[in-house]
Amino acid sequence: MRLRACSGDLLSRTANRKEGLLPALRVREIYKRTANLEEPESGRRYSLVTSEEDFGPRTWLADVLPPLRRGELLCLPVKGIPAGYDPSLPTAAMNLRWVPLVEEWSAFLEEDLELIASPARNRRFGELLGLGPGSTPAGDDFLAGYTSGRLWLGAPVPPLADTSRTTWLSGDMLRDAGEGLVWKRSKDVLEALSADDAGAATRTVARILDWGHSSGRAWLAGLSAAVSDTIERNA
Fold first, then answer.
1. Does domain 3-85 have CATH number 2.40.50?
2. What pTM does this model have?
């Protein structure tokens, strides 16, 4: 199994220096192209993925997933694994050309996302936590997009709520967002919004819209809210 790792996160800081290994990680969730692993002491998520699109914080990219069983312990290497993705937020500022486009993404809070529409539009962040079905409920995806957008724009973010009220995977995603770490599809969108290439913006938005049943749409709606709030306050 060939591996590439993300950089700029906890991989090197939590490694066993002598062995070049992380502490044993427990296999928590197995999907078609992703396996989510839990570090028992901290509860943080690590992932094995087989698509570059799914790169994120504390993630290894593998050519194939190894045979795994839920609950088993797995040791993965850190030393000598080439970095394939940096999950930190982009440093370039937003191109204001895209503000009207981004503000249109608030319309994603319709149809099957109507459940989160009212608390999202009224910024009742506590009500959004864990709201909706799935391993990452749509309310949490909205919060992650809002938090990442505000940090990227240099604005303050709401305090992180009690993540024990939502799923394990979603709580970890929200902690990452608060630490300025994002998944690749999200980072690609932010980088496109820093540039002046309409084609790149279209492509990256199309890819994130394909993220889960509603995760991409809810994340973009959260980013839209962050941009609207920040631009309105600074106007």
1. yes
2. 0.91
